[in-house]
Design goal:
Blueprint: H1 2-19, H2 43-46, H3 49-56, H4 69-80, E1 87-88, H5 90-106, H6 116-141, E2 149-150, H7 151-159
Helix pairs in contact: 1-5, 3-4, 5-6
Length: 166
């Protein structure tokens, strides 16, 4: 079950990487050997004005400097609810994390100091870390254990934030 979910996530990751606009919202330091942490409880990650503005640029006129923290949270949630069902599922959470973490994957050296095999291995570990982070988010925040985060559950998570590093 977990292996097939991981395969679906990896396939989705490839699709998003190849179709997503070429924008990154800053690289984050990721310790691939550390236990994953709940990224939804990190205000810098959720309230990244550049990230939110990029998602909203073709939809609404948005000035992140005038937005309240709660408005930034709302726009983060809605921007990653790709199928507009008012829930965030595991794939939507994965993609929300992925394009921030992708900058880290892109920075894996390819100038000869790291072999292609080592780079591939590092990218596989990064993908697994993202999947484990999604599991951590759902474990912490999916209050009714249905496999989705409602907006209520998302807000509750934000209220529990610990402003941890992603």
């Amino acid at each position: 079950m977990v292996a097939s979910l991981l395969n679906v996530l990896l396939l989705g990751w490839v699709c998003v990487v190849t179709s997503h606009d070429d924008h990154h919202h800053g690289s984050v330091d990721i310790d691939l050997d550390a236990e994953p942490v709940n990224a939804l409880r990190n205000s810098e990650f959720i309230r990244n004005a550049d990230h939110i503005s990029e998602h909203l640029k073709d939809q609404i006129k948005f000035d992140p400097n005038k937005a309240t923290p709660q408005e930034l949270d709302f726009h983060f949630f809605k921007s990653h609810d790709f199928n507009s069902d008012n829930w965030l599922d595991g794939l939507e959470l994965y993609f929300a994390l992925d394009h921030v973490y992708l900058a880290t994957g892109d920075s894996i050296q390819t100038d000869g100091r790291v072999s292609e095999g080592e780079r591939h291995s590092s990218l596989q570990r990064l993908k697994q870390h993202i999947a484990d982070t999604v599991d951590k988010i759902l474990e912490d925040d999916d209050l009714n254990n249905d496999g989705y985060l409602s907006y209520y559950e998302f807000v509750e998570s934000r209220n529990q934030r610990q402003d941890i590093d992603v």
